[in-house]
Amino acid sequence: MKLTNRLALQPHSFLQPFKGSVTTLIIGAGHAGLAMSRCLTQRSIDHVVLERGKVANSWRTERWDSLRLLTPNWKNRLPGYCYQGDKPNDFMTTPEFVQFIQHYAETISAPVHDGVTVTAVDAIENGYRVTTNVGQWQCRSLVVASGAFNIPNVPSVSKAIPTSIETLTTHQYRNPTQLEEGGVLVVGGSATGLQLAEEIQRSGREVTLSIGEHVRMPRHYRGRDIFCWMSDTGILREHYTSFDDVNRVRKLPSPQLVGTPEHSTINLNKLRASGVKIVGRFCGINNSGSNSSGLNKCEAQFSGSLNNICKMADLKMNRLLDSIDTWIEDEGITTGIDQPERFEPTIIDKSPTLSLDLANGKIKTVIWATGYRPDYSWLNLPVLNRKGLLNHDGGVVNAPGLYTIGLPFMRTRQSGFIGGVSDDAHYLSDHLASYLATSFKPSLYATS
Amino acid sequence: MNSYTKIVDNGVNVDALLGAREQLTDAPQAAQFTWRATCDWVKGTHSRSEVEGFFGLGEEQKHKTSFCFDADHPEIFASEDHGVTPVEYVLVGLASCLTAGIASVAQNRNIQLHSVKATLEGNMDIQGILGIDSDVRNGFDGIKVVYDIKADATQDEIDGIIAQSQKRSAVYDIIANPSNITVETR
């Protein structure tokens, strides 16, 4: 069904050039926005994709140098597109991934408008008005695909850190050479925190890594990449309605994985063996009084819960491995795989350090790898919860014709991974098409 | 194969807890609680604390009765030992908080408990409180809790319950993480 674009023109600001009226407008030309674009094209729904920079902008501008995808190449399937190189089991570098997405946009002829920054979205009769730096669009339905990683989270206590210490977010960090020689405190126990701690320690700087709740995962298990097992067992397709507490799950840090040419595993034990000092969750700064050298005291404080945090991650990893073993047994797979194994529990110091002197000059840099939050400051619709996150039911936002895509655990466990948006884009474009079909009776829009 | 519903009863009304959780998610204001205690000096190092009222769910609340707690120090501290030491109350608070959590988590995970016993130790170098060495802290060097649990569950399941109980424990958090304390006079 071709839904022609006969939306009655709404009054719009004369200060803003009117760019056009489309059935659907997608904000963001990353993998998720493009996957949605492809699905809409398949359904002959006319649309545009607005992109503040170039396709895959955040991958071009907000990633550190050594980053590779956590998912193997074969896993990064998008609607109508998949990896076609000769290394399906390897991990793309950031430039390779940018090229991959760029090529996808070209392959599917996505109607991308580059260099268009959305500054406001307002509800109008029968749709939305989207204001940008170049003009206004109108649409009946809107897909927010601007990503979950727009703004790095920085704890408010960061303001108490002495100005002699440089603080960086993961959007600013590129590689160890940009850091002053000396100690580095990396805060965060996600894939990012561990990867940065590893390469900075390797550069000769002494790293202290502060970790809260985290997700431990081996790169390989029983002779295959962990994503093979999580895909085959259906774990990655676990539906968001089946989680006990989807909001908790959506806040989980990314699993402690790294994509390297060697397919190596990264974990706290390896970091500890390489000299990284592992401490508990960063929970405050004590700057009352003076330290033993008579200087103004400034002490980072770490939670005493490190033992339990690590124990929980080990238990959860073992539950994942148990479920993989059970699946293998149920399927009767006996050849081509290795024996089950259980990995060494996370080792922590007998009395992990509870504080770190930031005033004695040993720590030169603090890196916040404390996660991100999306930026919806331009979204003038009553669809955000008190934490500033979109209220949505599996990507369907509680406003007519409004959708989101590309958020972690949005519809399934894999929604936040590149290839995970495929199923979501198919589902949401179906939903969107039926919304258009039922909400806009052709007679209402019949022209003379 | 027989299928039956396992009936687990650890005496915790999990449905009520989950219901409260759901309601308070929508009404975060009602989730604001204030816990209170009063303490009267008796004599020497002996004091008597009382707990009765608290604030929560938007209004003043009361325990079914008021509870009294004598605290003192043992005779080797030249005291009369009218009650346990304050630091032992901290151990009591931690133990009872974690144990309540274990019962609730086990109930929620459909695991029948038969017995739960915690043994706690807090090591302390009293050179700190006596002001002998300013490099020694006043409080515990660390606290060790050992659980002995009999339940219809695997060791990993029991470990999982204990871990979750720590994750959700108020007293565990109060001890493991810094809190601001203000002490004033009227």
Can you describe this structure?
The complex is a heterodimer of chains A (448) and B (186). By secondary structure, chain A is an alpha/beta fold. Helices cover 25% and strands 19% of the residues of chain A. In chain A, strand 1, helix 1 and strand 2 form a beta-alpha-beta unit. Chain A starts with 17 loop residues before the first strand and ends with a helix. Chain B has 186 residues and is of the alpha+beta class. Chain B has two domains: 26-84, no CATH class; 85-177, GMP Synthetase, Chain A, domain 3 (2-Layer Sandwich), CATH 3.30.300. Chain B contains four helices and six strands; from the N terminus they run H-E-E-E-E-H-E-E-H-H. Chain B has helices spanning 14-26, 86-108, 155-167, 170-176, and strands at residues 34-35, 38-43, 46-56, 59-71, 113-123, 142-151. In chain B, a hairpin with a 2-residue loop joins strand 3 and strand 4. In chain B, helix 2 crosses helix 3 (155-167) and helix 2 packs across helix 4 (170-176). The longest helix of chain B is centred in the middle third of the chain and has 23 residues, at 86-108. Chain B starts with 13 loop residues before the first helix and ends in a 10-residue tail after the last helix. The chains are: A alpha/beta (448), B alpha+beta (186). Chains A and B meet through strand 14 and helix 8 of A and helix 3 and helix 4 of B.
Features:
A: alpha/beta; FAD/NAD(P)-binding domain; 10 helices; 25% helix; B: alpha+beta; GMP Synthetase, Chain A, domain 3; two-stranded antiparallel ribbon
